[in-house]
Amino acid sequence: GVPPQACLPGNGSTELIYLIPRVFSLSKVLVITPCYNDYLRASILSGAQVITFSLQEENGFVLDELDGLIQALYNVDGMWIGRPNNPTGTLVTRDIMLQLVEAFPEKLFVVDEAFIQFVSEWEEESLLCSLPRPNLLVLHSLTKFYAIAGLRLGAVISHPSVIERLKEHKEPWTVNGVALAVASLLLECSPYEARTREIVSRELTAMQKAIDAIDGIRVYDSKANFLLCKWEKTQDLDDLMAHLLRHACYVRDCRNFPGLENNFFRIGVRNEEDNRCLLEALARWNPFTS
Fold it and tell me: What is the 3-state secondary structure (H, E, C) of the chain?
């Protein structure tokens, strides 16, 4: 349902993340943290000053302090946010996002929906098909949901005037022919999409319940295909990481994310057998054998 003039493909969403702040010459941007690091890096490289608005651990990293966010928006030119957010998996509702976009027409809102297709009823929640607005840019990556990361294919959706401005500055020939050919085939993947969402929803619920029952690990609600967790059994996450590696399991160490330095890690939801192996390894940890 997106008209061609409102869409610009890129070499993954990463190319577009770096293109946007460069084109719009933002002097001061707001970044919701913890977040995907390239929002900060792309802004800094373009010369922007970065102001962070931190999601709080005690609130489950849910954005529930809108008054503070609104006050912060008065002092910036634009804002980055992930929906669902990586690495927390939390999701700011579509209605709240549109209220902010309409309340601040002079601010640029860059919304990254790389993981939106994992959300139940995602078409109703996504901003991809909302009315194009000159101050709203929606990023999407086809490679996450369809597991084709090596093809490097993403896009930005916005008002046609914004897309034209981006085109003037975008490097040519960044999207390869193989990626474009595969993109057209994804229109025929409805059975895969339904099955994937069903499996992820079921396994996400089962894993969250199982991890919640393991002493020393705190797990947070997620709308994506991953779970953010906190290791509390020892003082050092390396204890868990070493244990898991000995059991042929690997999770994402999140201590390099601002706000997650205190022993946070992220688990990707896989198939039932892989998830069971990880859960057994997590439950098997003890200080005398690990």
Answer: CCCHHHEEEECHHHHHHHHHHHHHCCCEEEEEECCCHHHHHHHHHCCCEEEEEECCHHHCCCCCCHHHHHHHHCCCCEEEEECCCCCCCCCCCHHHHHHHHHHCCCCEEEEECCCHHHCCCHHHHCCCCCCCCCCEEEEEEHHHHCCCHHHCCEEEECCHHHHHHHHHHCCCCCCCHHHHHHHHHHHHCHHHHHHHHHHHHHHHHHHHHHHHCCCCEEECCCCCCEEEEEECCCCCHHHHHHHHHHCCCCCEECCCCCCCCCCEEEEECCCHHHHHHHHHHHHHCCCCCC
